[in-house]
Specification:
Length: 399
């Protein structure tokens, strides 16, 4: 009996080819014409390329279709590029030749530097570096606490103090404490100085805003308010009480950054009439306090003869009990019920025990770096908004 064998359909043949069926042909016949065209094309193969065996894909497809080798290849490529970028940013260390004869020009310059005597300023810089001054001290925060009150000369004092702090190398924080509620006039004057500041008020419960008499002293309360700002925010730096009536030199603020614990220096005070000058402060020998400048019999009763603007200390002494004196058992604050002449020494007694824990600035305490010049008269009336509205009548009219 004759058997009839039907060829597979094109869809069936493609399915067998896709799954590598053994009975599948390379090109499933669909028509006699297609067989003839395929046979003629197979009879004349290209001589430039050899036929690839079925079932063996191109090697490049191994990296493009498999995720793990592709990830490994790109990871190695990225690591290599990152290593090249790191090597390009490494510093180059140049070493000098061991034999000085190979660089005669350099040797000649070194010989000139050794023969040339150092100036006094260069010797002072070397002494400061030997004492421990470095890049860390140069970037230490300066916390300047200034008490102020609303009066006719307040604009003058704040503007002068602000322009001085503007020339100091940052970082500097100026804590201005108003005796009473903060005023918009003083806030505007502080903003115009372009100095980083904190403007707070205090003593409002003591009716400081209504009290215009200079006899009422709110300075201890104001300085304590500034200390609370430093202690509450844990500001790490050097605290300095700078009165707004003082005159300060720029080297003073550079010296403050070198203070490790507690530093002091002499301060002259000019009397109200301008005829007498009273010098108050330490006598130093090689950075050690060996005595005190004082005048008058009443001041001899003080333990430390320091002016309020003649010392500075590290802010960590406010919250670290190991750095403070044994007399300070709680918060270090200015005494509010002590006589005005004894306020400075009473506050210093909470910080240090004796002169051995003080640092003289500079090393021999022979430089005057700031002056205390009190304002001669407090009689002018404080104008509201610093604007004169009365007595503006024309005295000499224009013709």
């Amino acid at each position: 009996m004759a058997s009839i064998r039907r060829p597979h359909s094109p869809a069936r043949a493609q399915h067998l080819l896709r799954h590598n069926h053994p009975f599948a042909t390379a090109s499933p016949p669909s028509s006699p014409l297609r067989h003839a065209s395929s046979a003629s094309s197979a009879a004349a193969p290209s001589s430039s390329s050899s036929p690839r065996k079925p079932g063996h894909p191109h090697p490049f497809l191994f990296f493009t279709r498999r995720p793990l080798p592709r990830f490994a290849a790109f990871f190695l490529l990225g690591s290599f590029i990152g290593l090249l970028h790191l090597l390009s940013h490494l510093p180059l260390h140049h070493t000098l030749p061991a034999n000085s004869s190979s660089s005669p020009h350099l040797t000649h310059l070194q010989q000139q530097q050794q023969d040339q005597p150092m100036t006094q300023q260069q010797q002072q810089y070397l002494a400061d570096d030997a004492a421990g001054g470095g890049e860390e001290d140069a970037n230490k925060l300066l916390i300047v606490v200034t008490p102020t009150r609303a009066r006719a000369s307040q604009a003058y004092y704040l503007s002068r103090m602000g322009q001085t702090l503007r020339l100091v190398r940052p970082p500097v924080l100026w804590v201005v404490v108003e005796a009473g509620k903060p005023t918009p006039e003083a806030a505007l004057a502080l903003r115009r100085t372009a100095v980083m500041h904190r403007y707070v008020g205090c003593c409002d419960g003591l009716n400081a805003s209504a009290s215009a008499s200079p006899a009422v002293d709110f300075r201890p309360h104001q300085l304590n308010a500034g200390l609370e700002v430093v202690e509450n925010h844990r500001l790490d730096g050097v605290v300095y009480f700078a009165d707004e009536e003082g005159v300060y030199s720029l080297p003073l603020f550079d010296r403050l950054r070198q203070i490790r614990r507690f530093g002091t220096w002499p301060v002259p005070t000019i009397s109200d009439g301008g005829h007498d000058v009273v010098l108050e402060g330490p006598v130093c020998k090689q950075n050690q306090v060996v005595g005190w400048h004082t005048s008058g019999d009443a001041s001899k009763l003080q333990r430390f003869h320091v002016a309020m603007s003649g010392f500075a200390f590290n802010s960590t002494m406010l919250w670290d009990p190991r750095l403070r004196s044994h007399r300070a058992w709680n918060s270090i604050r200015h005494p509010e019920m002590v006589e005005q002449g004894f306020q400075g020494t009473t506050f210093v007694e909470q910080l240090v025990e004796d002169e051995s824990q003080m640092e003289g600035i500079p090393a021999d305490c022979s430089q005057i770096m700031n002056w205390h010049v009190p304002f001669g008269s407090e009689s002018p009336v404080y104008p509201k908004g610093w604007r004169a509205t009365a007595n503006l009548d024309v005295i000499i009219p224009l013709k």
